[in-house]
Amino acid sequence: MSPRKIRGASAEDGEELQLSPSETLAHNSAMRVSGARSGRQSTQRALASIVLGFELIIVFLMGMTVFGLSLLEPRELGIYIGIGLCVVIIVALACMRGGLGIKIGWGVHALMLAVAVIMPMSLIVSIVFLALWIFCMVRGAQIDRGREAWLASQDAQN
């Protein structure tokens, strides 16, 4: 496998970055995970995947807390709700390559806010993750638009 050259990723003007075979493999893997198609990644989708990944852990722990505090009758219902919401998050992560994953992500945050009815302290965690989600959606889209504008200007120069 020959070294891969990355356009626009230079240390100095006029110099192209060359990746070793292992770096190329890691780069390609990261791009696939973030939903990249034909070499173009979406920062918004990558950030959404990160937020949902962390949220997956927290949601499972929230379900265990509802179970442990016996907030619902039967107690196991807390675990079932937690696992159900975890499954929705996993589906959102699986659909992240298309636009559907972000839409499901918005639904996940609505469901997390609804859990506050059962466990009021979860409202704090839900609001923190919702704020983080909104920030990542806005800033990720902003970065993607900036990248597209930069790529268009590079193509116009060539």
Structural description of this entry:
It is built from five helices and two strands; from the N terminus they run E-E-H-H-H-H-H. The protein is mainly alpha-helical. It has a domain at 45-149. Strands 1-2 form a two-stranded antiparallel sheet. Helix 2 packs antiparallel against helix 5. The longest helix has 36 residues, at 122-157.
In short:
The protein is mostly helical and 158 residues long. It has helices at residues 21-33, 43-68, 76-94, 100-115, 122-157, and strands at 4-6, 17-19.
Question: DSSP helix count?
Answer: 5
Beta-strand percent range: under 5%
Structural shape: elongated
In spatial order, strands of the major sheet run 1-2
H/E element order? EEHHHHH
> Mean pLDDT score, rounded?
85
Low-pLDDT parts are none
DSSP strand count:
2
Helix-residue proportion = 55-70%
The major beta sheet can be summarized as:
2 strands, antiparallel
- N→C terminal distance: 27 Å
Radius of gyration: 20 Å
Structural class: mainly alpha
Q: What is the secondary structure topology, with strand pairs?
A:
Layout: E1 4-6, E2 17-19, H1 21-33, H2 43-68, H3 76-94, H4 100-115, H5 122-157
